[in-house]
Design goal:
Cytosolic CRABPs may regulate the access of retinoic acid to the nuclear retinoic acid receptors. By secondary structure, the chain is mainly beta. It has two helices and 19 strands.
């Protein structure tokens, strides 16, 4: 019986999966969320239209073609990579041990240096946080740089400017205490989770409906700030 190896590489939403065995090798190169034509040479030699998307922390594939209900789901649990194969009402499950970091299939890689281009409605957001007039005017005129370091689900986010610097470290899925020093100087409870390929933070404290979302489109990093009824992107 063959025991194929999987070699998975990941750059943002661009993923390459190589299935290697002594019989045949299969190479799959795709972008999450973009439909493509897949040639299943070496499997059953059919062609299908394939779309792969994130479902939480799972990769879910739908393969449209001659066989109904065809597709697969990849997920990681500890050091095991799980694969569920579906076709024509039949479900097959496989598990393999991984020698690679689970970061290889993280929903997104935010690591890098990001320079602020615009901050629409930022002053309204600061008003809701009770930031004084002078500080608001300084804040909206600043040129900011964000430096993000990501190690699997562990993040360090540094927001740098000529006025003030702010550093935030967290692990996705683990609640933590945050003191918003240099902003509104409040103590809040924070929880950051994955929502597809977005990082979503809920900040519980004195202000209602407070939080933020980070996501990447192309070569741009987006940040949506919310507090009470104000949304700033």
């Amino acid at each position: 019986m063959l025991k194929p190896d999987k070699d998975i590489s990941h750059d943002g939403d661009h993923i390459v999966i190589k299935t290697l065995s002594t019989f045949k090798n299969y190479h799959m190169d795709f972008h999450v969320g973009k439909e493509f034509e897949e040639d299943l040479s070496g499997v059953d030699d059919r062609k299908c239209m394939t779309t792969i998307s994130w479902d939480g922390d799972k990769l879910v594939c739908v393969q449209k073609g001659e066989i109904e209900g065809r597709g697969w789901t990849h997920s990681v649990d500890g050091d095991e990579l799980h694969l569920e194969l579906r076709a024509g009402g039949v479900v097959s499950k496989q598990s393999t041990h991984t020698s690679a970091s689970p970061a290889a299939i993280m929903p997104a890689d935010f690591s890098g240096k990001w320079i602020l281009e615009n901050n629409d409605i930022f002053e309204e957001y600061l008003k809701v946080l009770d930031i004084d007039f002078a500080t608001r005017k300084i804040a909206i005129s600043l040129s900011q740089t964000k430096v993000i370091s990501q190690d699997e689900d562990k993040f360090t986010v540094k927001t740098l400017s000529t006025f003030r610097n702010y550093e935030l470290s967290f692990t996705v899925g683990v609640e933590f205490d945050e003191h918003t020093k240099g902003l509104d100087n409040r103590n809040i409870k924070c929880l950051v989770t994955w929502e597809g390929d977005k990082l979503v933070c809920t900040q519980k404290g004195e202000k209602a409906n407070r939080g933020w979302k980070h996501w990447i489109e192309g070569d741009k990093l987006f940040l949506e700030l919310t507090c009470e009824d104000v949304v700033c992107v």
